[in-house]
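Our consortium's second objective concerns turning raw sequence data into structural hypotheses that experimental partners can test. To show how far this objective has progressed, the report includes one record in full. It was chosen at random from the queue rather than selected for favorable results. The single chain below, 265 residues long, was entered without modification.
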Amino acid sequence: MENQLLSSAATHEALPDSFVFPPDQRPPASAAAVALPVIDLSRPRDEVRRDVLEAGKELGFFQVVNHGVPEQAMRDMESSCEEFFRLPAEDKAAFYTEDTDKPNRLFSSTVYGAGGERYWRDCLRLACPFPLDSAATRNSWPDKPERLRPAVEAFVAAARALGMELLRLLCEGAGLRPDYFEGELSGGDVVMNVNHYPPCPDPERALGLPPHCDRNLITLLLPGTVPGLQVACRGDWIRVQPVPGAFVVNFGHQLEVHSSILFLM
């Protein structure tokens, strides 16, 4: 595993050929960063649900502030995950696998598509079944650093509650019953990806992730210290300017499909 994790190396002097993408495969981006719509969830509910609906229809991406996820839970999540990736390779070896059927795993340099190019990131993926009241669930997560498990539990519980509230606001704005997406549609595991991007020796020729659509209902992204999120908008790619303390929200493919079916009926 030591040679497979990008974060295991102290520095990377040169970008290996397997990480180099041809120019036509690198999404172009506008020169200026763009601020996504910022929705203050502490405002009157009728205004918030209108803004959530409009942002979803216009772009599918927006940011939320005053969202109710405790700042301490966000900071603990960030710092404990940073500490995890700084651990010696032997402390992470039990979780490293290329087996995509494993619900909890650590992996690196994923290959997507037929070109064979690799993406410059390490990722810790954790499955979080709800409710989070099972010792077996918590014990399936890494046990180092010691504070990682309680940090994950507190963060995921608060973030999931925020996601469900955003879905309720969307339903209210669209004239649906507020609990439409509750139950089976949102009853699966919360899947948390902790993406780690080590310093890259040639970032202009590499990518951290491919252009993609999230397949789930809703994604909440807590931006880290490494910028780089790009969003497709009107035929262009725009660089997102994160707002401190905000979550970036992305309505996923399942939500798009369900909303299209509903509005066609």
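The partners drew two points from this record. The chain has one domain: 6-264. Strands lie at 33-34, 38-40, 61-65, 105-108, 122-128, 190-196, 218-221, 230-233, 236-240, 247-251. Both points have been shared with the crystallography group to help prioritize constructs.
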